[in-house]
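Can you make up a protein sequence with its backbone structure tokens?

===
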Amino acid sequence: MNERVDTALALSMLSYFPDLSHGGYRDLGEFLDGYFAAAPGSRPETMFSGLCPDEENGVVRAMKKLRLCSRFRALRIVYDSLGSKRYNSFCAVDDESGTAYVVIGGNYRTGFYTSGSGETSSWCDNFLGAVQTVTAEQRDILGFYDRALSCLDGERVILCGHSKGGNMAQFITVMRGSPDICLSFDGQGFSESFIRKYRRLINKRGGKIISFCPSASIVGASLTPIPTAERFTVRESPVRRGLLFSHIPAALMDGDLHLRKVRRSGSGIIPGLAGRLSVMAVRAAGVLPFVSAENGLLHIGKALQYAFKDDPERGMKELLCRDVFFLAALLLPIFPAAFLTAAADWLCGER
């Protein structure tokens, strides 16, 4: 099982390359050879290059090792996101073990797209997931998963993803139930309305989910987790110190591209605080008649999307919103209570 976890983590890292998810490649070896055949300045980049260049954040180092692994190179890509702007996902088959990896990734590099909910992106969808029972991207990804499954021939299905991809992989597992196992790497939780509405399916299928959350990351600790999922904390090694860098998939790998040591226990005090703050703030906003949490979260998501599209000025304008201001103000009285409860859990043995 450990080899499959390592493979799922590496594939989840590669989902951040839109060129792979939309390129129509036959196998992973073809993509890796094409990547290194290009001059360093013209190679495709992951979204993490904005925080730290791929040469420094561990992505390129990991890809060099993956390129030398014959088993990994031979993974056949039987379905991908070609023709869709809504996600960066693909399905790869390991013929040797009879295993199919359905790899889920969000829409971070292709800009906004129009869905049934209007103009959106993964940044917007991430925040709207705090208040909506089912988001636009969660609804859309079910179609991708169903089509990917139709390309398989009885293989064991491992569903995986990192961050937003991990969240959507968990969502698919609850709604479809067909994956043999779901591996979520620092994937965030769900709205409380989702947990309430689909509690029966969660109780029935949530046991297939294994969630790996870095000890210093606030992403996977956010919102409400699937209560029946198996959870592990990863002692990651950030490329640079800081919560954002601990979220990078390569930080979860050791020098041999294995998942770093894990422990079956609660999160650290900072992730615990982030989780409680996210839930408590949404609850408070929901009972205040003058605050639209959904509108405020949508503007925050758009602000981040514009910031990552090198348009910080327009991003700042998105934050000049009444509902964003009230959401920020809510955190001031909530923060002490969230901090005390997170600290109490940590001191009582969740370390």
About this structure: The chain has 15 helices and ten strands. Residues 280-350 form one domain. Residues 151 and 190 are 29 Å apart (CA to CA). The beta strands are 76-80, 90-94, 99-104, 113-115, 118-120, 156-162, 181-185, 209-214, 230-234, 262-263.
